[in-house]
Write a structure and sequence with these properties.
277 residues
Length: 277
């Protein structure tokens, strides 16, 4: 629990500050600021640190390491950065295309029924379409999500094809584990924040106090939920792929890199077999 507070307190503070800034700009300056991208960055940083906390221990799970070397002990590389962006772009496009097709199909259907397609309706259709597409593709995404564990460990030689092969036959299991880890607390958070918003509107509470209360609770529950999901994912990574000494190559006591580790593991099995004989 101490490690959770150590890693979650900073991101939670940033979460509240970002959401409060969003509301201040909206109410005081009439400026619309979408905070989702900054919040994704904050939650991703926590997830990476928590992966390392769960798989390697507290001494290798600090934000200082993340800021300094990205956990892999290597200097910044434009090539690696470009490859990472390309992977993100490919996944985003793979999800965006069916989302757009579904949204446009729904718009055409509503227009055919004589319904006026307003901007609000378009936003609602986009949200619903995104949810449907995410549910449909969730069995695939839950397998590829183990790549984030390899990223957190600094295992640069691990790619999507390795993850795909290692998780073959475990799609339903991984999907069910992720669903059990995510859904209960997500529903609880949604209902709680909805009730708090309605209560604050009825009591006419100042928006700053409302934001501090609601976003503080929502952020805390989000990081608890994320810690549970990451722990489940990390355990799946440990079982299906495995953790090795070289997963922290910035350490002085780092073990062999992945390519050499495979050969050494095979040699050890051969020696063990000879000794047994």
């Amino acid at each position: 629990m101490d490690d959770f507070f150590r890693l979650a307190s900073g991101p939670l503070f940033l979460w509240v500050v970002i959401k409060l800034t969003e509301q201040i700009l909206l109410h005081e300056k009439d400026i619309t600021f979408n905070s989702i991208y900054l919040l994704n960055l904050v939650t991703a940083s926590f997830a990476i640190a928590w992966y390392r906390q769960y798989l390697l221990g507290a001494q290798h799970a600090t934000y200082g390491q993340l800021l300094k070397s990205g956990f892999n002990g290597r200097a910044f590389s434009i090539r690696r950065f470009g490859r990472t962006l390309m992977r993100i772009l490919m996944i985003s496009l793979a999800l965006l295309v069916p989302t757009l097709v579904l949204s446009i199909s729904l718009m055409v259907y509503y227009q055919g029924q004589g319904v006026f397609v307003s901007e609000e309706l378009i936003q609602q259709l986009a949200v619903k379409s995104t949810m449907v597409v995410m549910i449909i593709f969730s069995p695939i995404l839950v397998r590829l999500s183990l790549f984030t564990a390899g990223l957190a460990l600094g295992r640069t030689s691990l790619n999507f094809s390795d993850i795909w092969k290692s998780t073959r036959g475990y799609t339903i299991t991984l999907w069910w584990v992720a669903l059990r880890a995510f859904l209960p607390l997500a529903l609880y958070t949604y209902v709680l924040t909805l009730l708090l918003h309605k209560t604050s509107d009825k009591l006419d509470i100042h928006y700053i106090a409302t934001t501090l209360l609601i976003e503080g609770l929502a952020g805390a529950l989000t990081f608890v939920m994320l810690a549970i999901v990451v722990a489940a994912n990390a355990e799946a990574f440990r079982i299906l792929i495995g953790v090795r000494d070289g997963d922290a190559p910035h350490r002085k006591d780092a073990g062999p890199r992945r390519d050499n580790a495979v050969k050494i593991s095979a040699d050890e099995k051969h020696l063990t077999g000879q000794q047994a004989e």
